[in-house]
Amino acid sequence: MASLEFDLIDRYFKEPFGPLLASHATRVPLGIGDDCAMLNPDPGHTLFVSTDTLVSGVHFYPDVAPQDLGWKALAVNLSDLAASGAEPLGFTLALSLPALDPAWLHHFSDGLLRIAQTHRCPLVGGDTTKTNLPGGLSITVTVFGQAPALHSGFPRSSAVEGHRLWAQGLPGLARIGLLLEADQRGLYDTVAMQPDSAVWTALKAGMPQAVRLRACQQLNCPQPQIQLGLQLRNLAAACLDTSDGLSGDVAHIAQASQVAVLIKESALLDAWHRAFPEWIGQLNLNERQWLLDCALTGGDDYGLCFTAAPTADVALRQLSGPHALFELGMVTAGQGVWLQSQGDASLNPVPLVKRSYTHF
Amino acid sequence: MASLEFDLIDRYFKEPFGPLLASHATRVPLGIGDDCAMLNPDPGHTLFVSTDTLVSGVHFYPDVAPQDLGWKALAVNLSDLAASGAEPLGFTLALSLPALDPAWLHHFSDGLLRIAQTHRCPLVGGDTTKTNLPGGLSITVTVFGQAPALHSGFPRSSAVEGHRLWAQGLPGLARIGLLLEADQRGLYDTVAMQPDSAVWTALKAGMPQAVRLRACQQLNCPQPQIQLGLQLRNLAAACLDTSDGLSGDVAHIAQASQVAVLIKESALLDAWHRAFPEWIGQLNLNERQWLLDCALTGGDDYGLCFTAAPTADVALRQLSGPHALFELGMVTAGQGVWLQSQGDASLNPVPLVKRSYTHF
C-alpha cells in the first residue's frame, strides 16, 4: 500500500470507524494499520467466519446509491452470521476501485458505518486496491462472529425427519425489488426468469407504492436477522439465509441432511397475504402463481430458513410475530424438495425443479 | 450461489482441500459448505486476521502461471501472519472469475493447495463470483492465525530509540523479477520507476541466470516467513513484511512509533554481496546505486523487517544464517526514514523521499 491509499483509508475508514473500534478494545486489541488485526472472542466461545463478494454489474447496478452498497456489503455477510446463530465481532473490507471518487467513498463509508454501528461490528482491517478496468468495482467483506462453544452453528446437515420447516420474512420480495429496479433502467429482460412479462406488467400496474418501497428496500438494504439467529440457538437445527431463492436454499438442507423437504405453497401465500392483505386479495390465479414462482426462485432475500423439532413449536410461535416467522413446510423421509400446491388437500407433492439464480 | 458454482467449488476446492481440513477438525469443526465456518483457536490464544486482494493487471500479469497465482494469493496473506508472529489456522478465498476455465482452475487450486499444505493452513470457506468484465479476475484471501494471548503481535508502534533495525531476505529482489517479467512482455516502461533504462540494460546483460531465476521466483512464489515470525516472538518489537518497498515500509514504523529510523546503505549492499558475491563484485558505482534504489523502493518482497532491543542481538545473530537475516540500521530520536550513504563514515544521514509503489 502506498501513500494515497493510506490517506484514503484514514479519511474514509480508519477515522469514521475509529470510535466503534475503540469501544471494542477488549475483543479487538489491534485494529486497522498493522499487518494483522487481533481478535479475542470471549472465553469459551467459538469463532465464526464468512466471506461474500459483491461485484458491479453482477450483484448490483453500477449506479446504485453508494450508501446502500456500503450497507449491503456488510449486511449479506452479517446474514451468514445470523444463519449460524453467531454474534458479530468485526469484519475486514477488501475494496477494488476503478477510480478514486471522494464523494462516492464518503457515502459508501457512511452506509457501511451505519450497519456496523447497528450491529456493533467494528471494521478491523482491510485492503484497498486499484483496478484498471472501468466498472471493475468489487467489494469483499469477511465477517467474524462468536457463539458459546456448545452451540452447533445450525449446520445444514442437521435436519431430521419430523422437523418442521420455518421461514422468516417475505421470500421473493427482493426479487420484486430487482425487477422494479431493472424495469426502471429498461433492463427487465436481462433479469426476468419468467418468460411471460404480461403477468409482471399487470402485477406492477396494480402494485401499491408501499410494496414497491419495501421491495426495493429489501433488495438494497436487507436487514440481517442477527437477533433472531441468537434467539434460535436452542430451537433451530439446520438453518441458512435465503440468498439463492427458497427452493435452491432448501435443497441445500435436503441434500446435506439426506432428507426430503416439503414446501406448502399456501404457507407462502399466507405470509404474503399477512403483509399486504389488500393487494394479495386482489390478485388473480396467474398473478398468485407468478408470485409463488418469485418466492421459490428469487434470490437476495437474506431472511432465515430453518428446520426445528416440533417441541420448539410453542417458543417459535412466540417469536413469529415480531420476526415475521412462519411455518413453511416439513421434513420427511426421502430426498429433494417437494411442493404441495395451493388448495390441494391431498398430500401429493411434486418434485420441484431447482430454478435459482446462477452466475455462470 | 447456484448449481454450477457448487460443482466448481466441490471439484477444485472442497475435494482437493478436504484432507487438510479434516486433519484440522479440532481447530476447524465446520468448514466449507455452511453459511459460516467455525474456528477454535487453542485455549489462551488470540486470533490474528489479515486480508489481501490480488487484481489482474495490477498485482499480476493476466498470463501469469495459475499455479504461481494460487501460491502467491495465500503467500502474501501468510506473510502478514509472519510479520505478526502468528501461527496459521486457516483462510477463506473470494474469487471473482470472468470465465470458467477448468484447466486454469485446476492449476490455480494446485498452487494454492501446495502452499496451504506447506504451512498447514486449511481452506475453511469462500465465495466464487462471476464478473462480466473480461480480464476482471481478482482474488481476495482472508487468513486467520493465532498466538498466545501474551504475544504483542509486533505492532508498528512499538519501535523505541536505541533499537536495531533488522531485515530479512534480499530487499529489491522481487522488483528485479518484475522488471525481468515486464521486459519479456515488452512492458519495461510501464513498471520502471528509474527513468534511465541504460543502467538496467547493462545490469541485465551481465545478470547471471541464477539471479534471474531467484528474482522471478521471489516475485511469483514468495516464501512467507512463518517460522521466523514464530522465532521472533520474544525478540522483535515492531515488525512488518516488506511489501511496499523498504523505505515506505520502514516509514510506517517511524510514523507509528514517532521515531526516526536510519537505514545503512552498506548493510543492504552487503546482503546482496553475500547472496551473489561474483555478480555484485562486478557492478560499477551506477549499477550499485541502481540496485540500492531498487532495494529501497521496490515492493512485493515479503521478507520481514523489524526492530529489536540490543539485548536480542546474540539470539538474532544465531537466527541470521538460516533466515538470511541482517542488521540494516537503527532507531533514533526524531522522525522519518534516513539513509546513511555507502562509504560515508560520518553520521550525516539524509531524509529519504518515499518512493514506494502507488496504485492510484
Automatic annotation (TrEMBL), chains A, B:
**Where does the source fall among the domains of life?**
Bacteria
Which of this chain's residues are annotated to bind Mg(2+) 2?
A: 52, 80
Q: Which NCBIfam families match?
A: thiL
Q: Which family does it belong to?
A: Belongs to the thiamine-monophosphate kinase family.
Pathway terms, separated by semicolons:
Cofactor biosynthesis; thiamine diphosphate biosynthesis; thiamine diphosphate from thiamine phosphate: step 1/1
Name of protein: Thiamine-monophosphate kinase
| Residues at which Mg(2+) 4 binds | 35, 50, 80
Binding of ATP, residues: 126-127, 156, 243
Where do the annotations place Mg(2+) 5 binding? Answer: 244
Q: Which residues bind substrate?
A: 59, 300, 357
Query: Which species is this record about?
Result: Limnobacter humi
Please state the Enzyme Commission number of this protein. Answer: 2.7.4.16
Q: Name any one GO molecular function.
A: thiamine-phosphate kinase activity
